[in-house]
């Protein structure tokens, strides 16, 4: 066609422009590299695979909403001696039936996020570290905090019966809120039906506080309390975390 050259005889004047649906040119940095800066970057694959491989360079990703979703393919990230720093206020990585594999050589994988979610479907999550460091910070734990007000007589009565199978640490406590003394002891059970004493009874004077910790671990634990006279009023506690 006239005025449209197929072969450019001046290489420096050869330019190619790629436009999206909004008729806007692609953004590049001063070196001509494709610059991607977005408040919401989404990478989605269908049935294929998404592979990211870095040699000795780095792959910095800064985003307020980065989502990587794969269909039935696999997501593989392989780093040589570089680093992959990811800073995000909401990073979500979701794989379908494929596998998510992260392999690090001598670099590091620092992830700083206020909302990091990694979800795998029927595939697997594999993280392989060479001499680098993967740091994980957990800023919250599941807390156990239960209390119960009881009035006891001259027959042992249970309080704060709790399933503690998943808790790594817990303590029981009793406050005598009445004017007469009472005695309390720990009881443990494997099935919430058959109970056995753990240790001996401890006296709780009026207005006093005592703490108790079992010496043997079983699935269920409770306090058993009895009044030293006609009746006593107590507040029983169990507190723990996992």
From TrEMBL:
This is DUF6385 domain-containing protein. It holds the Pfam family DUF6385. It comes from Ammonifex degensii (strain DSM 10501 / KC4). Residues 164-242 form the DUF6385 domain. It comes from the Bacteria. InterPro entries: DUF6385 (IPR045965).
